[in-house]
Automatic annotation (TrEMBL):
Pathway: Pyrimidine metabolism; dTTP biosynthesis. Its cofactor is FAD. PANTHER family: FLAVIN-DEPENDENT THYMIDYLATE SYNTHASE (PTHR34934). DUMP binds at residues 109-112, 120-124, 196, 223. This is Flavin-dependent thymidylate synthase. The keyword Membrane does not apply. PROSITE patterns: THYX (PS51331). Signal peptide: none annotated. The active site is at residue 223. Catalyzes the reductive methylation of 2'-deoxyuridine-5'-monophosphate (dUMP) to 2'-deoxythymidine-5'-monophosphate (dTMP) while utilizing 5,10-methylenetetrahydrofolate (mTHF) as the methyl donor, and NADPH and FADH(2) as the reductant. Gene3D superfamilies: 3.30.1360.170. Pfam families: Thy1.
Amino acid sequence: MPLSPDQQAEIDTQRATPSQTLRAVAPGMEAHLYTAHEVLDHGFVRVVDYMGDDAAICQAARVSYGRGTKSVSNDEGLIRYLMRHWHSTPFEMCEVKLHVKLPVFVARQWIRHRTANVNEYSGRYSILDREFYIPAPEQLAAQSVVNNQGRGDALQGEEAARVLEILKADSNRAYDHYEQMIGTDGQDGLARELARMNLPANIYTQWYWKVDLHNLFHFLRLRADSHAQYEIRVYADAICNIVKDWVPAAYGAFEDYRLGGAILSGPALSVLRRMLKGERVEQEDSGMSKREWREFMEMVDN
């Protein structure tokens, strides 16, 4: 189950005892506080704390006092200008702290984004739970033949069932051995920090992840993309839904200029201009490699 009974009890207590504050609050984000949004089979994302809102972005950009200086429409226009022209500092004035439960192999992808503060559940100090990510059958796919780090067609029938059985059996066997190694019934027991090395990468871990909005948008631009691995993309999608309620104007600009936008290289821009003039352009005379050309055509055809 995503939340342990102790975690749920703590959250229920916190939700039942709200505090009055003089700081700026975002009503949409307040609704997400102390709520765990389930992801995958045992994971979740929940907001622990946050700072700032759309007005804080504008306040920082204008270096003003108070909540904005003009109207909501002007604030939204300013935010879109900042996003459009890659002004990052005002977005760094907003921060969020998330509690995330995720498989270890997803965490190792996630930690590549080194612009956050992270504190992870300690397998040296505590005993890890017997919880493993087992993909849904439709997520079991063969290796892609065009992308060395992607998936191809989904496995079918007996092959999919065989893979699922291997995943389940190996996960439980590894955890059985983990328990045997740390056990102290009739033996000293191996240190937890050593025994954990036998656990598979699909076991769940947890961490607190604190990041500013600028770097969060960078994370989401990469991980909410359709080309990202499914298991991290669903976490990014859950966070997108939270951010959309927290800073709606900033998220709208991010959605338009980053998620829904595209960056063109010099050769790609030159090709696009030639196409707009009615010229027929082929990969051989485009100045782009075959892979660049394929990616470019996918972008303009969509």
